[in-house]
Amino acid sequence: QVRLEESGGGLVQPGGTLRLSCVTSKSIFSYYEMGWYRQAPGQERDLVATIGRGDVTKYGDSVKGRFTISRDNDKNTVYLQADRLNPEDAAVYYCSAKHFLTGNQYWGKGTLVTVSS
Predict the structure, then answer these.
(1) b/e map of 53-90 (b: 16 or more CB within 10 Å)?
(2) 103 pLDDT more than 90
(3) Residue 26 CB partners (closer than 8 Å, separation 6+)
(4) Which residues make beta-bridge pairs with 113?
(5) Distance CA 2, CA 99 (A)
(6) What are the distances in angstroms from CA 40 to CA 24, 94, 110, 117?
(7) Which residues does 37 contact at the CB level (< 8 Å), separation at least 6?
(8) Contact of 69 with 58, CB cutoff 8 Å
(9) pLDDT digits 0-9 by tens, 46-78
């Protein structure tokens, strides 16, 4: 069982910055693609960013150039640096771990990001 715990969400003004963190229950980065997804009210859960083997990253079109995903292997933690936030970025952000071979995917409980002046 993989447990994921997000933190770092909150209220930020438009143009502001947040750094989200996701701590995993154990060292899993060798076996799982780690990612961030988000879901706004009434909308589907969408890809924000993923990081996989060799630190290869992928980003959703709406966040390219503004968000950065990274990880610290020693701390079993994945980060999402979110810059130049706008109201359309407001959502619950979920951390994900997806097994490279089986495709089994685990989710955290999410952290709420609100962008408002």
Answers:
(1) eeeeeebeeebeeebbbebeeeeebbbbebeebeeebb
(2) yes
(3) 2, 76
(4) 10, 91
(5) 10
(6) 24, 11, 12, 18
(7) 45, 46, 47, 48, 93, 94, 96
(8) no
(9) 999 999 999 999 999 999 999 999 999 999 999
Q: Rounded to an integer, what distance in angstroms lies between the CA atom of residue 40 and that of residue 46?
A: 9
Q: How far apart, in whole angstroms, are the C-alpha atoms of residue 114 and residue 4?
A: 21
Q: From the CA atom positions of the chain, what is the Rg in Å?
A: 13
Four-point Cα dihedral 61, 63, 30, 78, nearest 10: -170
Rounded Cα distance, 75 and 23, in Å: 8
Structure tokens at 97: 């771990």
CB-count burial class (<10 Å; 0-12, 13-18, 19+) for 48: buried
Structure tokens at 32: 């799982």
